[in-house]
Design brief:
Length: 366
């Protein structure tokens, strides 16, 4: 399978803090890779690094290999990645050779498939890829990326996107006439994703695409990402804390990459991750702590929050509802999700309740 590879990334701040540590991960084309891990583990730092942004004076090493080659489905030739086969204004003809960081030398452009993330030239290569839409980035704080004085339509126009369509992202196109501050946080995230996907990227990096969205909107965002992957053959790296949405919508063969302390400790399928069968103990613990069926929470309220009376009545009713769920939850998901996860071991859920532990669980936590 064709993959985009991130290899041996280290990022150390001037004060000595190491944020990313020998981080490597393969991003298969045609699949979403869900990046999960605790707050502060380094998820946004990795996303920003792949978009060509690093904290000032940070020491960075590592490579991004865009993979593929001419003629492969869904891929573009390496030379095009630095602009020599791309739009003329990307590289050279208007004195913009520095867009690809090479001053237009063909031999330098030929190495653009592998980007040295630790060099200024590498960051310029990434910037060039972003300008051409081959690499797209939907950041966590999307509001910051839109100039406050521009109406969104004008912003899209300047970004070379003449006919933006927000409807697939659950928004009216009349919103294009607004300024960024006139949208909610969730709305601006969706606009950011619309911009990121406008050029059919080869690699899409999105930082918490479902944050701030209600479950229905979150599900439709994942559907949009899924379409990008299946239709365009892109590799998608998507940060999420929303394991419920992931469980409802991800394909079983999508990938989960688990980051801990700046290092990828595990990469496995969504199915293996959510069923807590991952090889890595931290991955299993993370999955075991997740309310994977989100739409059907079990009220395991601790005594000091709800009291035993609450559990005795409501909990049993909810447990009953839980057991009525169809095995594969297909009916609860938008679009064609015939292969949709999850499989939840209800025996373990019931045992958890009976043990009166305040804890979410799915399957055997090992
Ligand atoms: N520019 C910076 N200067 C100093 N420390 C930074 C900087 N950027 C990130 N950090 C630190 O690096 C660590 C990783 O931050 P990062 O934003 O990547 O975490 P995260 O996994 O995305 O967290 P969250 O899930 O809360 O968004 C944190 O401890 C953060 O405080």
């Amino acid at each position: 399978m064709n993959t985009i590879a991130v290899s041996r990334c280290c990022l150390q701040l001037p004060a000595g803090d190491r944020i990313l540590s020998d981080l490597s991960v393969e991003l298969p084309m045609g699949r979403i890779t869900w990046l999960v891990g605790e707050s502060g583990a380094g998820k946004s730092t990795l996303c920003n690094l792949l978009a060509g942004l690093t904290p000032a004076r940070a020491q960075v090493t590592g490579h991004l290999d865009m993979g593929g080659g001419s003629g492969e489905p869904g891929t573009r030739g390496r030379a095009e990645e630095c602009g020599t086969l791309g739009r003329a204004d990307d590289c050279g003809t208007r004195g913009r050779a520095d867009d690809c960081g090479t001053r237009g030398r063909a031999d330098d452009c030929g190495t653009a498939g592998s980007v040295d993330l630790g060099t200024r030239r590498g960051r310029k290569l990434l910037a060039g890829m972003r300008r051409r839409g081959e690499l797209a980035w939907a950041p966590q704080n999307a509001m910051d990326t839109f100039p406050p004085r521009l109406r969104l339509r004008e912003w899209f126009h300047r970004a070379g996107i003449e006919s933006p369509d927000l409807v697939p992202f659950g928004l009216e196109n009349t919103m294009l006439e607004r300024h960024p501050h006139e949208l909610s946080g969730g709305q601006i995230s969706r606009v950011s994703l619309a911009a990121a996907l406008a050029h059919s990227p080869r690699l899409l990096v999105c930082d918490e695409p479902t944050a701030g969205l209600d479950p229905g909107q979150a599900d439709s965002m994942v559907t949009v990402l899924d379409d990008c992957v299946r239709g365009g053959g892109a590799a998608v790296l998507a940060v999420t804390h929303d394991l419920s949405s992931m469980a409802r919508n991800a394909r079983p063969d999508d990938q989960v990459a688990v980051i801990f302390n700046g290092h990828i400790v595990d990469a496995c399928s969504v199915e293996v991750f959510l069923s807590t069968r991952a090889d890595n103990a931290y991955s299993r613990a993370l999955a075991a702590a997740a309310p994977v069926t989100g739409a059907h929470p079990l009220p395991l309220a601790p005594d000091h929050l709800g009291g035993r009376g609450y559990r005795e009545g409501d909990e049993l009713r909810r447990l009953h509802e839980f057991e009525q769920l169809p095995d594969d939850l297909t009916g609860a998901c938008p679009g064609d999700r015939s292969g949709t996860f999850p499989h939840v071991d209800r025996t373990v859920v019931r045992e958890t309740i009976e043990c009166d532990r305040v804890e979410w669980t799915s399957g055997d936590a090992g």
